[in-house]
Structure formats: structure tokens, C-alpha cells
């Protein structure tokens, strides 16, 4: 039963980051990073490349969540450690990667 609960909780959490990545990849206007912020079209030199890089960033960030979703069936403690590492280490890395993407494509 706990594996079912684990899946019910983890699949939507993992999917959110993957969906953000797919959305960013396919977006016609520049994708933003922070909630409430906006990236103007005039700020970005190559919008499709910028959005693909942004989408790739989010999809890569979602991979440890997907791994822990399936790893949790065998060992939930290892899966929880992976989630914690992705949050504690991954979030700051995500910020740095986004800043590099923005700087690369900024006009």
C-alpha cells in the first residue's frame, strides 16, 4: 500500500518539472524563471534556442525526481535522500544554470 501512496505523491511532483520543461521548450515567447518575473522578447537574441535550453534545464532537473519515484519502490530511504539532494543541491544549481542561459542569449 505504501508503494501506491508513494507513486500517487511522486508522479505528479516529478511530472510538474517535466511539464515545465516541455512548456518552456515549446513556448514562442521567452520563458521566465522566477514567478512574477517576465523576460521580454527584446531581451533575448535567439528565443527558440533560449527556450530549448530553458526546457532542457527543467527536464534534467526532473530526472532525479523520476528516478526517486521508481527507486522508492525498492528503497524509500535512498529515494528520499535523492529528493533531498536534488532540492538542496539541485535548486542552487538550477539558479546558476538559468543565469548562464540568460546571459548567453541576452541581447
Molecular structure report:
This protein is mainly α and 107 residues long. It is built from three helices and no strands. Helix 2 packs antiparallel against helix 3. It is elongated.
Unreliable residue runs: none
Specify the biggest β-sheet.
none
Radius of gyration: 16 Å
Query: What sort of overall outline do the alpha carbons produce when their principal axes are compared?
Result: elongated
Query: Helix fraction?
Result: over 70%
Helix/strand order: HHH
Structural class label: mainly alpha
Bin the strand percentage. under 5%
**Separation of termini?**
53 Å
Counting copies of identical and different chains, the oligomeric state is single chain
Average pLDDT rating: 92
Number of helices: 3
Total count of strands = 0
Amino acid at each position: 500500500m505504501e508503494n501506491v501512496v508513494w507513486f500517487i505523491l511522486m508522479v505528479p511532483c516529478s511530472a510538474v518539472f517535466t511539464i515545465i520543461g516541455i512548456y518552456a521548450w515549446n513556448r514562442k515567447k521567452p520563458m521566465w524563471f522566477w514567478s512574477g518575473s517576465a523576460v521580454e522578447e527584446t531581451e533575448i537574441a535567439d528565443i527558440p534556442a533560449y527556450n530549448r535550453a530553458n526546457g532542457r534545464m527543467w527536464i534534467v532537473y526532473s530526472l532525479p525526481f523520476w528516478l526517486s519515484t521508481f527507486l522508492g519502490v525498492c528503497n524509500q530511504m535512498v529515494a528520499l535522500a535523492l529528493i533531498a539532494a536534488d532540492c538542496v543541491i539541485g535548486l542552487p544549481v538550477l539558479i546558476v544554470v538559468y543565469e548562464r542561459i540568460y546571459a548567453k542569449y541576452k541581447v
